[in-house]
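pasting input
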Amino acid sequence: MEYAVVGNSVMDTRRTSEIMATTDHAGAPPEPVVEASWTAPLDAQTSEVRAHLILALARVRWLPVEAIQGKGGDLRIDSQEAEVAISMLEIESGLELAKVEDLRRDELATIGSLTRLIHGKLILAAGNVRKEGIK
Amino acid sequence: VIALSATNLSIAWLEALERLLGNEGEAVNLVVAIQSPGEENPRVRSRLDDFIARVEPLNRERKVETVVTVANTIFPEALYLPRLQERARGHLYEMHGLAYRVSKRRNPYGTYFSRLVDWPGPQGGVNQLEQAVVRLAGAHERGQRNGNAYETQLSDTIAYEKGLSLPIYKAGVDNRVMGFPCLSHVSLTLNDGKVHLTALYRNHEWIRRAYGNYLGLSRLLSFVANESGWLVGELVCVSSHAIAEISQGAGFGKADIEMLAKECRAALTKPHASAGSRR
């Protein structure tokens, strides 16, 4: 069985059709907690942020990553899904990635807008670290 | 008292708005019964959302939000995946817990759903929604269509002979005169194979909150019924005080709200659709 590491959990990454063909029609349950794969480096590229948001969204929707990525283009998401994804990345990184003023509907509407928001926060955090002289 | 009964939530919201406008924009004890709460007319919601979109930039200091944003505070539908079957509730609670870490930054007093799944009891958080579902599902397994033999004692949730009572308001904690929580109580009643929901609001703002609240309560009722194996019954909402919000912000003039009501009435001539069919 294949799993994708998402946050501090893992999920079944089989295609939905494979999952639905099994006995319970609901996919395999998340496995026990494993070590997180990403520590959110402050110099993370947008592609890396996006990839981790896709992983988080796959966990929220309980779908394989390919089913999320396969849609192509920017992906519309619900604001609640966005909040879960932010939360997962915050737990992984130990950083606060959205303040109350960031939680606007337009910021949380797509994977693209959410990627820009979080990438911007990482750049900001990196700038603060440099100012404080901490590597 | 104003009391009315309507077939779906769009008609219910609109008829109540029209009654409020005919009553100087205000009512004490507005009682609205919705016979098929899972149904709505999306064009009515669109008209209201269009109005909200127009006035939101003019009222940044007030909480002016789309219908679905309001509904999400009662039931976060995007996080409930019925296809997960017996794991669906656990997934919902887990995902909501993660989302709430973030969303409470803009809702510092909490959300209605957080009160349902993490009620601040004396011994810590109580998931009174899960307790209600388990009790109703137990009644279903025993074939008790009127649910009058619940044997499990709920902690902070009040169980009575034929129903379940889910408090939202927390005495001693919720001391604000206005604002959260306006929804103070939710009751679930099992009767003749259907789960019925009654909600009590101490103050109901009809333009900014009421439609979204009806939608959220409808989704909550659908969740409870689906997870416990019963059919969806009636949704009744008692607003001990309700206002049409006339002159309560820029763009909230009496003529503006009357025009909104007229546009929604015109939209009602179009076909209905299921409330669960769009977010």
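fyi The radius of gyration of chain A is 16 Å.
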